[in-house]
Fold this sequence. Notes:
Helix content is 37%, strand content 19%. It has helices at residues 10-19, 47-56, 74-81, 92-106, 111-121, 154-160, 184-189, 201-209, 214-223, 244-247, 257-261, 281-288, 302-317, and strands at 3-7, 28-32, 38-40, 43-45, 127-130, 138-143, 150-153, 166-172, 193-196, 227-231, 234-235, 238-239, 270-274, 291-295. Strands 5-2-1-9-10-13-14 form a seven-stranded parallel beta sheet, with helices on both faces. Strands 7-6-8 form a three-stranded antiparallel beta sheet. Strands 3-4 form a two-stranded antiparallel sheet. The protein is globular and about 55 Å long. The chain starts with a strand and ends with a helix. Residues 8-12, 14, 48, 51, 66, 198-200, 203-204, 231-233, 235, 239-242, 244, 297-299 line the site of guanosine-5'-diphosphate.
Amino acid sequence: xxxxxxxxxxxxxxxxxxxxxxxxxxxxxxxxxxxxxxxxxxxxxxxxxxxxxxxxxxxxxxxxxxxxxxxxxxxxxxxxxxxxxxxxxxxxxxxxxxxxxxxxxxxxxxxxxxxxxxxxxxxxxxxxxxxxxxxxxxxxxxxxxxxxxxxxxxxxxxxxxxxxxxxxxxxxxxxxxxxxxxxxxxxxxxxxxxxxxxxxxxxxxxxxxxxxxxxxxxxxxxxxxxxxxxxxxxxxxxxxxxxxxxxxxxxxxxxxxxxxxxxxxxxxxxxxxxxxxxxxxxxxxxxxxxxxxxxxxxxxxxxxxxxxxxxxxxxxxx
Length: 318
Ligand code: GDP
Ligand code: CA
């Protein structure tokens, strides 16, 4: 059985650790958001690719969510002392990932090729691919204090400014010109199930769908009978962690298990909601026409993640 998972960062990483217990890892392709990517210190930063790699290889910091366990931040402290940009947390071990990736890119390798080398080196059997080798930055139209506002890179809005600005719009720049990374179309066409990880719909999943052709591949697969099932990242009306509640309403979606499903009109066949949101199931069924399954979807450990993955796969199988 071949499975494709559309992935953001932390929510996706946790979920994938469960999925690899149910499906042979080499039959899983994770298509990962790169809308958050940026260059800082001359380094190519791919936060969601790194989260997925670190979680799958067991190197992730489970409590902090992002970055590596046992991390230290000596280099970043020194960057701060030297008055360099220190707002983006890059740990000492994490810096090595960024050095190798940036080196490979500077040699003319694509982001997909660099990612393949990194995942091979970490012993990851899941095929981890960026959504595109072309840049598709997520840009947020934010109004800071007074004034007309401006488009800023997602990471500036989210990390540097702590999501404090009012958001007017979100744009996935260059999506129409970008090509899906090699293998993305084939993986979607050959999938027996397509899963949408519990990731931020606006910051993580919609950027993937903005890459030209990816939405069409999904629609074609769905029409051909492939189950397309997502897991809600919103539990009890709030993100489990993070600031999704700041960004989701800005694009006209409600912050709920219903609203997250409504972010993907015409793409899904099913939606997994947390048992705390069981009362929303009828609305999701009736208004969105989806099959709904409920489970305890808080993934505190890999056993939890495995259960959520099984529920999603069963729902996808119909
Ligand atoms: P980021 O790119 O690292 O911010 O991560 P994602 O976009 O993948 O994920 C952020 C979302 O993951 C948040 O909305 C969280 O609510 C959701 N999330 C994190 N952990 C869990 C979990 O254990 N269960 C569920 N259902 N959602 C989770
Ligand atoms: Ca992210």
